[in-house]
Structures are given as C-alpha cells and as structure tokens.
Amino acid sequence: MLEAKYIREHLDEVRERLALRGQTLHLDQFVLIDGERRKAIQEWERLRAHQKKVSEEVSKRKREGKDVSELIDEMKKVSQDLKGLDGRIEEKEKALQEFLLLVPNLPHSSVPIGKDSSDNAEIRRWGEIPKFDFEPKAHWDLGEELGVLDFKNGAKITGARFTLYWDLGAKLERALINFMLDLHTREHGYREVLPPFMVNRTTMTGTGQLPKFEEELFKVEGTDYFLIPTAEVPVTNIHQDEVLEENVLPLYYTAYTPCFRKEAGSYGKDTRGLIRQHQFNKVELVKFTKPENSYDELEKLLSNAEEVLKRLKLSYRVVNLCSGDLGFSASKTYDIEVWLPGQNMFKEISSCSNFEDFQARRAKIRYRISGKSKTEYVHTLNGSGLAVGRTLVAILENYQQAEGSVIIPEVLRPYMNGVERIEKRK
Asked: Catalytic residue positions?
C-alpha cells in the first residue's frame, strides 16, 4: 500500500508512474477524500482547542463564583460537534483506506517501460537449448504415454485443470519438492516453514490479493477463509503486525505448499497439460530485509531460484518485466523462463519480486533501528524456487528419448531411490 502522505506530496509523480503501468486509476478521488479528511481533522483540532480554552475559563469563573451556565451550554454544543466530526473523520479514513488498497505499487526506476509481456527485457540466457534427432513431444502426450500423468481421471474426480499423478510421476513431483527445499535450506540459508494452506481475509489483504483479486481466489464456503494462491501469502504474514529487531534482518524463509487459483480471465490459455492448473505445487522463497539492501537481496533471490535449473541442467532465460506486465504489488520483477522443446517456447517457471514496503504497510511489518526507538517498514521479497509442476514439465520435455522414455536428471536420482529413467509400464 502506498502512503497517503507520499501520494499527497508527490501527486504528479505518482500519476506518471502509475500511468507507466497502463493504469486507469484516477487520483482525483484520492485528492477529494484526503482533502475532506484533512479538513475535518483541522476543524476537530480547532474545536478541541476551543473546548480546552473554554474549560479553563469555566474553572476560573467557578473559582471566582461567577455564572458559567452560558459557557457550559456552549460546551455541550461543541461536544456534539466533536462527536459528529469523529464520525466524519472515521468515515473518511475508511474511504481513504479502501481507495489506497486498490492502488498498485509504483514501478522501480530500473523497470523497462512497456505495455505487456512483448516489451519485457531479456537479461541473460543459461544453458544450451537441446537438439533432438526426432520430433520432441509435449509433456501431456509424454505423460499419458508413460502412464505418469492422468488428465482424464483428474477431470473426472474434480474438473478441468486438475491432474492425477501416478507412480514415478508422483515420485518425481515429490523428489523435486525435497530437492528444492534441501538446496535452499542447506546451501542458500533459508529457514523451512510449513504454513497453513488456508488463510483469513486480513492475511490475503496484507500481501495484496484482496480486495482487488477476490475473483481469482477459492473461498471456503461458510467461512472467511481462502485457499492460498501461493505460499507468499501465509509466509509473509508470519510477521504481520510485528516490530522486528534490526539485528535479525534479513530473514530468509522457504516453504512448500499446494497453490489454488481460479485462473479467472485465462480462458483459452494453456488449456492442455500442467502449465495452468487450478491446483499445483510450489516451493516459495520469502525475504524480509532493510530498505537499503532489498535490491541486492532481489539479485541473490533470483540467483537462488536460477540455481535449481542449473542443477537440473535445464536451459532458461531471465527477463525484467516491463511496467505494463508487473504484478499489482511488485515494484520490480524478474521472470525465469525455462525452455520447453515440446512446445518450442520459453515458459515462466519463477517470478522473483521486490515489493519494497508495499506489503509491509498493508501487513504492518516494521523493524526497530538498533539503539533507537524509531521504527521503519521492512521491504518484502519473494520468488518461486520453483513452480514444481512446471519443473516436472521441463524435465519430461527436455529429457525425453527417441524410444519414448525420460531420463531422470542425476541430481534427482538420490530422491528417486536410484531410478534413472521413466519408462512405459510393462
């Protein structure tokens, strides 16, 4: 959430930076609400000062034995006016907060200006794109032929965009989760946490999913709980409404969770296979940092996510998202896109973002500066480390063999009880 004071004092700048996102949000409403709120506060302060002054006069006259009935009547009216102003201020505060919750974050100066994903800037590539002496298949065909992915029964059990994994398919998914968590905890310094998979409305609001994106979420009927769309939500809110000590920062957390998304607005996109499911697994990386370090920490987080693909020997590229393609809460985002030969394209497998103090303001997460009583908002960052289903897709498509089997990457074999390849069941 942006600070009202910052918007007020930098109105033209905020307008310009929001316009880079292609936002049609008009700040005239903010100016109106904020102006009415400040006017009511000023009137309240004027009346309160007058009330205090008259109260002192009443006390003085009583000591002198003088009549104070007229002043008391005046004070009754002032008290009523103050109560009315209290209600008006509360109303305007609420309206202001509701407006601010719908304002996206401002793009960082290093974000390229553009309208959509076609304007994203490629930063680098890693690995050689594999060459095949046969026509590589897409993972949905490979998975069904090998008997490890079952789209038909997934749809029967639940509906479209749900999948059943069998045998070595299920084992490979589990191996990837454990490999990623081990890498991030043993080598990258993250602390593992297993959070709840349902959260309340306050938690969803803290990371920016609510109120704007409620249509994207699965809500639990009869409660105010939501299934999480990403572990970012519960893990970031671990420190909701807390003041951290400066010496504990930065904090690094990693978590495996299933994720649940309605994929509203994605009609017709990636309808086949595992790319766009309503339920999928992900290993998330979350950081809490001091403001002056957050962009260095973003580069480290990106490197941590990239390392997963390097260990798996999967070719990928990194892109800097343009202003028009940024997520609502992000100030800057790198996407990692893995090469999928069966689809002859790069596909996003991780988004690594710096939210600066946007989420921290919403979730009220501060830190106390050492030796001082002063507090500041932390900066929050997160990234997929990685999306597990999409990683499995990349393995199936990149490691497929001419006779139809799929080689298991060496780094995963200890997690697969030594299995070296997935073959058709006999």
From this structure: 261, 276, 348, 351, 390
